[in-house]
Amino acid sequence: KFSHGENIVLVCDAARETLPILAQDRKIPNPGENIGPKIVFNPWFIRMLWRIFSMISPLDTESFFRVHFTKVEKQMHEGVDQIIEMGQRFRLSTTNLMLLRKRLPGKA
Predict the structure, then answer these.
(1) What is the pLDDT of residues 65-82, one digit of tens each?
(2) Whole-angstrom Cα distance, residue 8 to residue 81?
(3) Category of 12 on φ-ψ map: left (φ > 0), alpha (ψ -120 to 50) or beta
């Protein structure tokens, strides 16, 4: 399961890695240097949100997100690939994004 598995750490690391890439692409200051993203893209914070969502949602959280991400799988792969390409073009770290991409089901 996502909230208890090793992927949550990789997803958070990849999300933090994405911020400077997108900031460079949009020519804005890197928001990853602020405290907000450091808190939000932290496994303990995601687990806490997951628990809260699971308690208040009438749906099975794990099933809901599995269906959702299966539905948007192609777009998700394309988005990750584009961010990796941008990061490499800007000579920024894409290590976690590439590791995440390899773990995604149906990877190219």
Answers:
(1) 889 988 998 998 999 999
(2) 19
(3) alpha
